[in-house]
Write a structure and sequence with these properties.
heterodimer; A: 176 residues; alpha/beta; OB fold (Dihydrolipoamide Acetyltransferase, E2P); five-stranded mixed β-barrel; globular; disordered N terminus; B: 284 residues; mainly alpha; ABC transporter involved in vitamin B12 uptake, BtuC; 0% strand
Chain lengths: 176, 284
């Protein structure tokens, strides 16, 4: 009988795993990327690489520079950024990953994101970014899965009462 | 920047790295304590079986949309552990067959549920993370760490408080019962603690690798030491060092955290086996 108190105490335990944050859009992007990876042919290497100007602050002044971290650290840091949003609001972020695009079939709203995989490549975290309005998809964007670097201001917006993270006033560079 | 400086920088500036160390080392310590008992009771594979049960329960919790999956995961895992450890000897399906049956059954049901009723678009990521741990140890929140600390303290206290009784039940259950020790009660305690460790360790190494965390340190210690106490102490030291080394290496070299810890445990096991052979052979 003396052991019974262990069970309710243990029931308090909480664990985290992939996909338990409010990252529905990113989840959708990841799922689409998985399907694209499985079905697409080789990328069109003849397509011209989009040229988006690098911002003036590209000489090293970032509040959070993810390009200097190893892949596990990048994944964990991005996870932290999408779960502990208050710590990053207004900060200038620099991140490298792969380009992904999604359009909501109901609202027709377009979402652009940079995805970062963990070391096992089974989990991915992503951050949406917003380029200036003059950039139109697909002409001014690379193919999905293309390595890119994005710099932008961290902000949080609400959609369907859910908070989502995005990099505003962003710039994008297609990596070789 | 050399690796040590980089590690120091991560430790100081990234809270999730500190969280990973605290939780990882505590889980490793708890797993090693029970590992010796489970290995000696010939229940080495029970960790694997229970972790698959936990995986299945987690899938059920995900399908039902529970925010706190532990409401389902922990009771189901504890119940399975009790069934396997306490009543296994009195049932028609005994020991290893019962473990294997529950293990693969839960795994299959869990995977099927996750596919038939997907709770997120990233099913492969969810499955991979749950089975192999992935980097989930690096994505803990402060509340997770606090709860893990509480659970670890409970496990360690239980083990220390009932050390002599667990010792008696581990080596000769019949004799312990004849001596007035409620062996069934202590088997229940071992089952509950084992379940708690399994559920905790899913975050560190994932479902498929939990067994390694439980058995490798104990087996390594048994290469060189003979007494219960010395094996447990050595096992705890090995487990904590390997978990720490595994986390550090995986952060610095971007390898999967769980696998790196298990490989570190394997290296120590082979090293200890070699030393034991050189010293003239140790039986375990």
């Amino acid at each position: 009988m003396r052991f019974r108190f262990l069970i309710p105490a243990a029931a308090l335990l909480l664990l985290t795993a992939c996909g338990n944050a409010d990252t529905q859009t990113i989840d959708t992007l990841i799922a689409q990327q998985s399907e694209a990876d499985a079905s697409s042919a080789a990328p069109n290497s003849d397509a011209p690489a989009p040229t988006v100007p690098v911002p003036d602050s590209a000489n090293g002044e970032y509040d959070v520079d993810l390009t200097t971290l190893e892949s596990n650290m990048v994944y964990a840091q991005v996870y932290d950024m999408v779960t502990n949003t208050d710590n990053y609001k207004g900060k200038r972020i620099r991140v490298r990953g792969t380009f992904n695009y999604y359009q909501n079939p109901d609202t027709k709203r377009e979402y652009f994101a940079v995805l970062v995989n963990d070391a096992t490549a089974c989990c991915a975290q992503g951050i949406e970014f917003v380029l200036p309005d003059s950039y139109k998809y697909p002409d001014d964007y690379p193919e999905q899965g293309t390595p890119i670097e994005v710099i932008g201001l961290y902000s949080v917006y609400t959609e369907d009462d859910q908070p989502f993270v995005e990099l505003q006033n962003a710039s994008m560079t297609v990596l070789p | 920047m050399n690796n040590l400086a980089k590690l120091a920088d991560y430790f100081v500036n990234y809270p999730f790295v500190r969280y990973a160390f605290v939780v990882g080392l505590l889980i490793a310590l708890c797993a090693s304590l029970l590992g010796v008992t489970l290995v000696l009771k010939r229940f080495s594979f029970i960790g694997d079986g229970l972790s698959h049960v936990a995986f299945g329960a987690m899938a059920v919790a995900a399908v039902t949309g529970l925010t706190n999956k532990m409401i389902i995961v922990l009771p189901v895992t504890v119940l399975s552990a009790i069934l396997l450890l306490r009543t296994g000897q009195n049932t028609k399906i005994k020991g290893d067959a019962a473990v294997a049956m529950i293990s693969v059954g839960a795994l299959a049901v869990g995977y099927m549920l996750m596919n038939v009723f997907p709770s997120s678009s990233n099913i492969s990521g969810d499955v991979c993370s749950t089975l192999f741990g992935s980097t989930s140890i690096l994505t803990l929140r402060k509340s997770d760490v606090a709860l893990c600390v509480v659970m670890a303290v409970i496990v360690i206290l239980m083990f220390l408080l009932f050390y002599h009784k667990i010792f008696a039940v581990t080596f000769d259950e019949s004799f312990a019962q004849a001596s007035g020790i409620p062996a069934n009660g202590y088997n229940l305690l071992i089952a509950v603690i084992t379940s708690m460790i399994i559920v905790l360790a899913m975050n560190l190494v994932g479902s498929l690798l939990i067994s390694a965390l439980i058995i490798f340190p104990a087996l390594s210690a048994m290469r060189l030491f003979r007494s219960f106490r010395s094996v447990i102490i050595c096992s705890a030291v090995i487990s904590v060092i390997c978990a720490g080394a595994g986390i550090i290496l995986s952060i610095l070299f971007s390898t999967p955290v769980g696998s790196t810890i298990v490989v570190a445990d394997m290296v120590v096991f082979f090293l200890f086996s070699l030393i034991a052979r050189c010293k003239g052979g140790s039986k375990a």
